[in-house]
């Protein structure tokens, strides 16, 4: 077998399944340990904020950007390190001499295990697949393991405004916290304005279809048509979407905490990792919404945290055909809530609510039932 054919055969037969197996194991670990991992990352972040505060006592220059960046060179040394960098308002051209590092071995140890297994599997190819080929493959697969670090950072940042050290940092009028690769592509994980845009501008932007990553707190969107809009990773806390049209909207990671969504249409929307805790969702329609978490053999990584419906009012809410795997329904209010054909594997419910729910035996069996106070 020629080298090109051998490498193609090796990729098709072994690489995908080996990496997927490790991703499934990582996903299970992340799901079970995410709160401990969040606390460790928060402690690391607080240490960075304290360094910034110390610098600002000498020079009160405001911070415009904080970046958490994967150093790919550390992967080659099998010592997975992320780098904290702090910048002024001009970003890369305005470096502040403050930084730190975060070790993410908890995620990348599973990539290392995939590498070890592939090293064994390449040997029968008698030199047609060499060690450097496995190294290149591992670099290409890095992005899937990096995604869990990104998800953890977003999870930690849901409570960032309650961190005193972060609040004490002097920030620019527009402040970004980004995550990605060092001096390469990065995602916005947190965005804050000292003077946020007015409600009319926010609504106009949303009607135009793209308000991803934008602050839109405490805004009246009621009865508006925002179908097919992109609200992903936006901060909509305390807003009013009563009887609004969010049909087929992209709401990935959107923070809806404390929102009014009575009678809202979210059919066929993507609500992966969205937070609907303490929302009023009476008569809202989330039929066929996509929000399942976990790793799927056919679809790969679905999402990471699951949808949060804790302490929400789900009276007469429709979840017909929705994918709600690993969603959290603890403390929610149920009355005539419709879960027909909903996918509820590992969704979390209080045992006391079982009698109020119209579920099939299959749904009951796959739900994770817990007592009040149990995590």
List descriptors.
375 residues; globular; 7 helices; Pectate Lyase C-like; five-stranded mixed β-sheet
Word description of this protein:
With 375 residues, this protein is of the alpha/beta class. It has two domains: 3-173, no CATH class; 196-375, Pectate Lyase C-like, CATH 2.160.20. The protein is 34% helix and 17% strand. It has seven helices and eleven strands. It has helices at 3-58, 72-76, 105-122, 131-157, 164-168, 199-207, 361-366; strands at residues 63-70, 81-87, 95-103, 171-181, 186-193, 294-296, 300-303, 313-315, 333-335, 348-350, 368-370. The chain has a five-stranded mixed β-sheet. It has a two-stranded antiparallel ribbon with strand order 6-7. Strands 8-9 form a two-stranded parallel ribbon. A hairpin with a 4-residue loop joins strand 4 (171-181) and strand 5 (186-193). Helix 1 packs antiparallel against helix 3 and helix 1 (3-58) packs parallel to helix 4 (131-157). It is globular, with a radius of gyration of 23 Å. The protein starts with a helix and ends in a 5-residue tail after the last strand. The model has no long low-confidence stretch (mean pLDDT 92).
């Amino acid at each position: 077998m020629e080298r090109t054919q051998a490498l193609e055969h090796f990729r098709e037969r072994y690489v995908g399944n080996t990496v997927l197996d490790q991703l499934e194991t990582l996903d299970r670990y992340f799901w079970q340990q995410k709160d401990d991992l969040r606390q460790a990352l928060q402690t690391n972040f607080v240490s960075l904020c304290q360094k910034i505060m110390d610098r600002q006592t000498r020079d009160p220059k405001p911070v415009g950007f904080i970046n958490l960046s994967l150093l790919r060179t550390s992967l080659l040394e099998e010592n997975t390190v992320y780098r904290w960098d702090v910048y002024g308002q001009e970003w890369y051209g305005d470096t502040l001499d403050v930084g730190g590092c975060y070790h993410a071995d908890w995620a990348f140890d599973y990539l290392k295990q995939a590498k070890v297994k592939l090293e064994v599997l390449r040997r029968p190819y008698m030199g047609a697949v060499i060690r450097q080929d496995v190294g290149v493959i591992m670099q290409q697969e890095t992005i899937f393991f990096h995604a869990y670090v990104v998800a953890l950072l977003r999870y930690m940042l849901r409570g960032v405004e309650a961190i005193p050290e972060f609040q004490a940092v002097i920030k620019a009028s527009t402040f970004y916290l980004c995550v990605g690769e060092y001096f390469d592509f990065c995602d916005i994980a947190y965005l804050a304005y000292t003077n946020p845009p007015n409600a009319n501008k926010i609504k106009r932007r949303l009607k135009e279809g793209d308000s991803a990553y934008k602050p839109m707190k405490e805004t009246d969107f009621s009865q508006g048509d925002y179908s097919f809009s992109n609200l992903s990773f936006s901060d909509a806390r305390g807003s009013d979407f009563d009887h609004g049209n969010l049909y087929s909207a992209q709401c990935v990671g959107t923070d809806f905490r404390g929102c009014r969504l009575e009678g809202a249409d979210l059919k066929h929307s993507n609500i992966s990792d969205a937070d609907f805790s303490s929302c009023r969702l009476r008569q809202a329609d989330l039929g066929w919404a996509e929000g399942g978490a976990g790793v799927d053999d056919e679809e790969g990584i679905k999402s990471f945290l699951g949808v949060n419906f804790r302490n929400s009012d789900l009276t007469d809410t429709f979840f017909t055909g929705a994918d709600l795997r690993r969603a959290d329904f603890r403390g929610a209010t149920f009355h005539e809530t419709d879960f027909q054909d909903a996918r509820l594997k590992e969704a979390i419910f209080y045992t006391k609510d079982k009698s109020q729910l119209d579920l099939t035996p299959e749904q009951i069996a796959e739900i994770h039932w817990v007592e009040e106070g149990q995590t």
